[in-house]
Design a protein that fits this description.
The protein is an alpha/beta fold and 187 residues long. It is 37% helix and 19% strand. It has one domain: 3-Layer(aba) Sandwich (Mannitol-specific EII, Chain A). The chain is built from six helices and six strands. It has helices at residues 6-10, 25-40, 44-57, 113-128, 130-138, 142-150; strands at 16-21, 61-63, 66-67, 70-73, 80-90, 100-109.
């Protein structure tokens, strides 16, 4: 039996919102923080404040229509993720000026930077994969979205060459090659 991937440990179908109608990016973060706080038995206001504070020093827009708000949260035992398709898309400050229609909130325990960075790298790599993003945009429900996010079971058998994450950053990517691609196997 294959060990679960990091992505599968971050998110469950119950933390997938197939269509989140929100006024703006702050409203998106608030709704995702509410779901994450409920899952982890944390105070919503504390989670929201931590994510918004992180947003003051970090850009959550990762390009190609993807936003990944994230923060370290006291009292959290393990990383937790919440995913939503956004309608309409919103501005999360992406370098490529694209509005985000896919958002993944990532919360990690305070003081465990290696775990946070590994989880963030996996989420970025997965959601920026063009084929994954296309499937996420067209999936019919939370269960289908969850399968696309957490596994490659939906890929065609002749896609062996594409197994894993085809969005592994290349030299000119927005990450400037900063993501350690050796983490790919653990995603």
């Amino acid at each position: 039996m294959m060990a679960p991937t990091l992505m599968a440990s971050l998110i469950t179908p119950a933390r997938v919102v197939p269509c989140l109608h929100a006024r703006d990016a702050r409203h998106v973060i608030g709704e995702l923080a509410r779901l994450a706080a409920a899952e982890a038995s944390l105070d919503h206001d504390m989670v929201l404040k931590a994510v918004l504070d992180r947003g003051c020093s970090s850009v959550f827009g990762f390009g190609r229509g993807v936003a990944i708000p994230h923060a370290a949260i006291p009292g959290l035992e393990r990383p937790v993720g919440v995913f939503a398709r956004l309608k309409p898309a919103h501005d999360f400050g992406s370098v490529d000026d694209s509005l985000a229609d896919l958002a993944f909130l990532l919360l990690s325990p305070v003081g465990d930077d290696p775990t946070h960075l590994r989880a963030l790298a996996c989420v970025v790599r997965r959601l920026r994969d063009r084929e994954v993003a296309a499937r996420l945009r067209s999936a019919k429900d939370a269960e289908a979205i969850h399968i696309v996010i957490t596994s490659d079971a939906w890929r065609e058998p002749d896609d062996e060459s594409k197994k894993g994450h085809s969005a592994t950053p290349q030299g000119g990517d927005l990450t400037n090659g900063a993501i350690d691609t050796s983490l790919e196997a653990s995603c």
